[in-house]
Amino acid sequence: MGVLRTDQLSGTNWFARPTLTQPNPKPLLKQNQFGIAGGGPILKNKAFFFVTYERLQIHQQTLESIATISPQQRTNGDFSDIKTSSGAPIQLYDPLKSTCSGPAGSVSGNNPGTGNLPCNYTVANGYAGYNLIPKAEWNPMSVNFMGYYVPLATLQQTTGSQSWLNTDKVLSPTTGNQYTIRGDYHPTKHDQTYVRFFHMVDSAVTGPPYSAILSSKFYDNFAEANWGTTVRDTHTFTPNLIGDFGFSDTNITTTGTPEGLIVTGDKMGAQYNTGGYNVSPLVSVSGSPAFGSGNPWYENTALKQADAKLSWVKGRHLWQFGATALREAEIIEWTNTNAAGNPSFNGTLTGAPWADFLIGKPNSFGQYTPYYGNEHTVQLGFYADDTFKASSRLTLNLGLRWDVISPWREFNHDSPRVNFNASFHSTRFPTAPPGLEFPGDPGVPPGTIFMDKGDFAPRLGFAYDLFGDGRTSVRGGYGIFYNPPGAITLANEIEAPPFETQLVFNNPYSIDNPYLGTGYTDPFPYPYLNPPANPLWPFPAQFYSPDPHIKNAYTQQYNFNVQHEFPKDFMVQIGYVGSKGDRLWDGNQANAGVYNPATETTISLAGKFAQANRPFLPQYYAGITRIANIGYSNYNSLQITARKRLSAGYTMQFAYTFAKSLDAGSVPDADGGSEQDPANPIVGEYGRSDFNQKHLLRVNGVWELPQFRNLGLAHYAAGGWEVSGIVSYSSGTPFSVTTGSAAPWLGAGRDIGSLRLNATGTNPCAGCGSRDSWTSFGTGTYFNPAAYASPLGTLGTFGNSGRNVLVGPSTINTDMSAVKNFPLPRENSKVQFRADFFNLFNHAPFNNPTTSLSSSTFGKITSAGNPRQIQLALRLNF
Question: Cα(484)–Cα(15) distance, rounded to whole angstroms?
Answer without folding.
Answer: 41
